[in-house]
């Protein structure tokens, strides 16, 4: 090091090691003459010094684990959907339901036991509603997961951030102006409204490399309050059939959507989910900060934009068919993160399935608890969600 | 000798505030290069410029001949790894997950970690003595343990250049020495080029091949530790009095803090150089 030695001298290292570390690593190091490796030679071989690398002791994420967790959650989803299928004021037995479904798909040797009214209840009311609950729940849970990761804020979700509110305004405007008649009109404008409010939150909170948790939430509250007021204004100045009820947009309801709407929302959801899942690993790294993500080779701006777009798209699709359903996007990512960890390659699909199951269950409760009257499903999720939000806030503060 | 990092007449400013001016330095392959200077003298900004996080407003930066700002982030991440000062951990991530993140620039978008990726991460954890912590969550670790995780993550990147921003500030002396030993052996044996910001002059004297001393965004002096770490230079740059003599065992410069014994000088003790026994 000192005096006569020129700076980078790879070969003469033995003489001037500090004495402390010889006892630990010195022997292994001395065994082979060191050569300066060519560029691209793996460095790890240098510091393991030819020691045999043992099998990895700690479990890591594999496709098998993702498959297993998803299979388990699919079973949960199936269980809840069967329960939901049977629940309701009209008593239809489980055997009749299954036979009816099998007969409808022309399964050989099954005769249809259902009456006409029962068929209508099952196929035009309950099944579309269950499918819709599953889709909307999955959509909100996924976009909540993405917002939490991108903003590095465990309290973020599309409802709290005002993205749902913006999407609802977009949907109402498209219905009022007649643009909703165009293909993709309602979900398209809902998406635009959601993305706009996301940009507003982003701009107001000045999210840069550092964590500005309080400001993100504050910006979300401002945007959300503004859009909620705008929804009430728009609905109150529009009369007639054009706009369904204020309650639908502000509290969320799964009973209003038609089958065409559901198909369209499903399309948007799948598209958004594919983009999210393709960036799942990038999202993991964004959890550790934008500067770190850049240093680990993520094109942060591009990834962030794609993820914000897809999360807004998915939220917009959900809101255009169900109004604003709060707190699903908050509770579900948290619950799932506690169960499976923070790796988004597992977290995203698990949150989608769990979110679907959660909203199906919530909607079933909303349908049966005051039967034959119904609660808007948003009431159930908010009743579960608000206390949970308070708990999280208390814990993270 | 092949120059790996070439910084030529680089200037940078945050708005009106000039941070770096006319900085020129070249770091050779396999060199251990130290950057010293008071708080706010532009050390971290210089690292940011070399890593392409920020672009220089004047002058040029070359990494193996290419401008870092023009390279794809993924390519750059295979070339340069950064050990930041600290990161916040809002979400439950395990040590192993964080270290495996270092493999990101080597793994395809849809691929999972291969056996080799796991082996590299494992040996990086082994080298930094954090293998027993592999399944622990980041937010349950001490500051020093987290720092070692970040070093392991950088090693898992298998970079050719490693940039360290006060990598050992919260480590005890044993881990400081072990960490610097490890990094120096990588620079000697594997040709890893090291640029390290540090406040500890005695550590810098012990490990660095050359040192640049920054003062208000300019290079005050650059050279071997014995040339840079002198009483006069430290007084000029930090405005504090220290005694520098030769450590009897190594012959390296040894810095002893004297406190504010000279009238008229501000007594900001920024040097952070621990008195040696």
Describe what this molecule looks like in 3D:
- The complex is a heterodimer of chains A (397) and B (277).
- Chain A has 397 residues and is an all-alpha fold.
- Chain A has helices at 22-31, 44-48, 63-86, 94-104, 116-151, 163-177, 185-205, 213-237, 246-251, 259-278, 280-286, 290-295, 300-322, 328-340, 344-368, 377-396.
- Chain A is 67% helix and 0% strand.
- In chain A, helix 6 (163-177) crosses helix 13 (300-322), helix 7 (185-205) runs antiparallel to helix 8 (213-237) and helix 10 (259-278) packs antiparallel against helix 13 (300-322).
- The model of chain A is unreliable at 1-56 (pLDDT under 50).
- With 277 residues, chain B is an alpha/beta fold.
- Chain B starts with a strand and ends in a 20-residue tail after the last strand.
- In chain B, helix 3 (95-101) packs parallel to helix 5 and helix 4 (115-127) packs across helix 5.
- At the A-B interface, helix 1, helix 2, helix 11 and helix 12 of A face helix 2, strand 5, helix 3, helix 4 and helix 6 of B.
Give the tags.
heterodimer, A: 397 residues, mainly alpha, 67% helix, disordered N terminus, B: alpha/beta, six-stranded mixed sheet, three-stranded antiparallel sheet, 9 helices, 11 strands, 26% strand, globular, disordered C terminus
End-to-end distance of chain A, in Å? 49 Å
Give Rg of chain B in angstroms.
19 Å
Structural class of chain B: alpha/beta
Mean residue pLDDT of chain B: 87
Number of beta-strand segments of chain B: 11
Write a short abstract of this structure.
The complex is a heterodimer of chains A (397) and B (277). With 397 residues, chain A is mostly helical.
Task: Record the SSE blueprint.
The complex is a heterodimer of chains A (397) and B (277).
Chain A: H1 22-31, H2 44-48, H3 63-86, H4 94-104, H5 116-151, H6 163-177, H7 185-205, H8 213-237, H9 246-251, H10 259-278, H11 280-286, H12 290-295, H13 300-322, H14 328-340, H15 344-368, H16 377-396
Helix pairs in contact in A: 3-5, 3-15, 5-10, 5-13, 5-14, 5-15, 6-7, 6-8, 6-13, 7-8, 7-13, 10-13, 14-15, 15-16
Chain B: E1 3-14, E2 17-28, E3 32-36, H1 43-50, E4 58-63, H2 73-79, E5 80-83, H3 95-101, H4 115-127, H5 143-156, E6 161-165, H6 173-189, E7 193-197, H7 201-207, E8 210-215, E9 218-223, H8 225-228, H9 231-238, E10 242-246, E11 253-257
Parallel strand pairs in B: 3-7, 3-8, 5-6, 6-7
Antiparallel strand pairs in B: 1-2, 1-4, 8-9, 10-11
Helix pairs in contact in B: 3-5, 4-5
